[in-house]
Amino acid sequence: MAFEITARTILHLGADLISSDAVALYELIKNAIDAKSATGVEVSLEIAIKASDYAAVVALAQATPVGGVAALREEVHKRMQVDAPEDLKCLLLGGISSANTVSQFLVSFEAAYRFCNRIIVSDTGHGMSADDLRNIFLTIGTTSRTRDVERAVKAGEEASPYLGEKGVGRLSAMRLGKHLRVETAKSDDSHVNVLEIDWTEFEKAFDKPASSVVIRPTIGAKKKVGESFTKITISDLVSSWSFTRLTEIARSQIARMMDPFSWSGRRRFQIRMSYNDIAVEQVRTVAAELLKSAHSVCTGTYKVIEGEPKLHLVLTSDFYDGPRIEHTFDTNDLLGMSGVQSAGFPVSVLRSLGNFSFEFYWFNRQRIKATPGIGDREAVRGLIKAWNGICLFRDGYRVLPYGDEGDDWLGLDREALSAGGYKLNTKQLIGRVAISRTGNSKLLDQTNRQGLKDCPEKDGLIELLNNIVSRWWHDYLNEAGSAQKSIKGLQFDPSKEGAVVGSLEQRIRTSLKVIRKDFKGDAELLEQVKDAFIEIKDAHTRAVARISAMEEEKGRLTQLAGVGLMIEVIAHELTRATELTQMTLKSINKKSVDADTSAAFKVLGEQIKVIQKRLYTLEPLSVSARQKRSKMSLAEIARYVLDAHAAQFDRHQIDAQISAPKSVIGFVVEGNVVQILENLINNSLYWIEVHRCEHPHFAGKINIEVIDSPPRIRFSDNGPGIPVSRVESVFEPFFSTKKTSGNRRQGLGLYIARQNAELLGGGLFLVDEGAIHPYRYNTFELELKESAE
Fold first, then answer.
1. Percentage of the chain surpassing pLDDT 90?
2. Last residue within a domain, chosen from 575, 603, 626
3. Into how many domains does the chain fold?
4. What is the mean pLDDT of the chain?
């Protein structure tokens, strides 16, 4: 036994796989491209009478109008399209000329209507032989092209031989009309090969086998020697067509079919469309002048080089006069950015994704102006509107529906709505992502041409691009915008900073609830946490009041504006301290006071002390409180910090070692040293886990070494390390390659750590390049003072 396909299945395939008339035309045009048509493709709609007019005449006939058949003929003549081809007009009028009764008129009018409107798609490609029609065209799902494409993929060829390969494109004709005539010939054929299909025969056969509908190619007229072509005529049209509708499809879909960024030397495939011999104007390609006038640009390439993926990102902004910024992300960065850690798909996805490139252009709608080569402001607006959105192009041709109006495949509109300023939304972006069939073999179209098939590679692509736009580009524009504002006078938004502090307060309250639930120990310490945050909020209130009162004193306002950032920094310190303690307590038996518990609370207590001392620095007009320092054993501090994480190290399978002679003394504030070590440990845990995604059996190690003269603490791990290019940027506020979580801001940890080191009169640096991984740093050195001198 074997599967048998019924006739109605063919009809379902045509109706369901080809989702719209625009997609159907798109598929027929792609066939002309694959046929290597040197003169492009002609798409002609020839309409003798519109569907709406046909329906109106039928309704009039059914009402038996005064005047009978003669009046009906006159009505048809009035409603015919004046500019329709003469042969179609004659066909329509001749079809109804012999009718003597209204019933005869209705029958003949319906028969004539089937063939008086048609869509003709013609090209001068390599054509098809009679055998091709029999064995390939009439085989739905044929593998004739698939084999060639797969060969090109395996051979690593730069370009795919075909755009289409599924063998279902011929169903596009069924979507458009119920009658199909194919006239085609190869260069060495002497006659034209003809194939006619009446899809209504499948409706009549319905539950019978599809093979019961017999379709055979025939031999047509002679043709010129060496000539090759294909002409597809579709009649008995399913949809109603008008000049306006065809123009809309031409401008919104067909014009965007080819990569609009291809004005650099490559000749565009010519697509000519007409309605009753009236040319339909398509939107021209995106002009280079328009893209040059973009207010900000984000470009990049993703390449897999010798098995290792690399992402190079370039950001520029003329609008904000921002600096050109370049980022290079390696495998470990991409593991974090793509969400591989939490998505559950294999790390190999970053390699199997394949090479791609992208170009995104941002236009501030309020600052659009006339552009030479395009026109006035309204002309520029119109061109931006015609091309806005992020399109996906494979081998220079668009993958539908990405980039259509309302399509948000990268989730940018959702991100923009939740972020301040609503900058990077699809209405203000023109962009493309360029992939190839051979280079991105896992990114395949769905059979119905409605996007890519779901697969890990697709998820990884979307996650990476979303991260690039909504995080790196978004932050770049915000920073550039803030820098521009600072030139005019530093701005401080108290409501925004208040919201940040309020959010952090809620996180602390949640953590404290969990801590109270899991541990019934020293309640006084928890009260210290609450009191510390109350002091932070009071300091914020005083700072805002002071700023408001001194708005006109620009010099002092500049000094005060930094208070907002300092409040957030300190709030982050306290939040991190409580959350880390909460994590530690979860791994400890409830209501038990052992060494681990004591160590965890000692770490929390020390951090709270230093945070409370730092609150005094928030008083804008007071002298900063002198933090009390004393001589302490650096070994003891390092040991109890490490002990506080013992359960966590065990859980993450990390071997943590310390080499610390007690004789090494530092003149320090204990809490500052604790905070620095806490941050370094937290970062190591994260990146060791990232590294383990790619190397499942990787044995994580952390080593702390205390050294004398001058007193130093060297902290190292064997994780992926930090690239040489980021030796300073990792210490900048809000710089982080970690995947963001919700609305939490990241990138303050090392900034705070270095600031703490400098408060102690020392410094925090990266040292020993290449000791573990070439061109990378894995060791931090915290240098401290030995005495008050």
1. 29
2. 626
3. 4
4. 80
Task: Indicate the pairing of strand 722-723 with strand 397-398.
Answer: unpaired
Owning domain of residue 229: 7-40+124-241
3-class state of residue 237 by DSSP: strand
Question: Which region among 184-188, 436-440, 474-478 has the lowest average model confidence (pLDDT)?
Answer: 474-478
pLDDT at 615 over 90: no
DSSP-derived secondary structure letter, 258: B
Residue that finishes a domain, picked among 626, 651, 676: 626
Judge if 582 and 717 occupy the same domain. Answer: no
Q: What is the 3-state secondary structure (H, E, C) of 21-34?
A: HHHHHHHHHHHHHH
Choose from 51-65, 502-516, 522-536 the range with maximum mean pLDDT: 51-65
Let me know whether 652 and 778 are in one domain: yes
**Same domain as 673, residue 714:** yes
Q: Please, which residues bridge with residue 433 across strands?
A: 358, 392
Q: What is the pLDDT of residues 158-178, one digit of tens each?
A: 777 777 766 666 778 888 999
pTM of structure: 0.71
pLDDT tens-digit profile of 246-264?
Answer: 999 988 888 888 776 654 5
Q: Tell me whether residue 45 is in a domain.
A: no
pLDDT greater at residue 367 or residue 58: 58
Helices (H), 725-782: 749-759
Q: Report, in this order, helix, strand and coil percent for the chain, each rounded to 5.
A: 45, 20, 35
β-sheet bridge partners, residue 316: 297
CA distance 258 to 32: 14
pLDDT at 483: 57
Give the whole-angstrom CA distance, residue 770 versus residue 8: 67
Q: Is 345 left (phi over 0), alpha (psi -120 to 50) or beta?
A: beta
Reported as type and span, the H/E element at residue 744 is none
Q: Identify whether the C-beta of residue 337 lies closer than 8 Å to the C-beta of residue 692.
A: no
Assign residue 14 the CATH number of its domain: 3.30.565.10
Closest residue by Cα to residue 637 from 607, 661, 670, 595:
670
Q: What is the 3-state secondary structure (H, E, C) of 75-124?
A: HHHHHCCCCCCHHHHHHHHHHHCCCCCHHHHHHHHHHHHHHHEEEEEEEC
Q: 47-104: per-residue pLDDT in tens?
A: 999 988 999 999 988 886 666 888 899 999 999 999 999 999 999 999 999 888 888 9
15 token code pair: 């109706």
Among the listed residues 59, 177, 80, 65, the one whose alpha carbon sits nearest the alpha carbon of residue 95: 80
Which residue from 297, 299, 300, 268 is spatially nearest to 284, judged by alpha carbons?
A: 268
Three-class SS state of 776 = strand
Output the CA–CA distances (angstroms, integers) from residue 258 to 120, 231, 267, in the order listed.
21, 22, 11
Alpha carbons within 13 angstroms on the beta-carbon side of residue 574 total: 34
Q: How far apart are CA 549 and CA 565, in angstroms?
A: 19
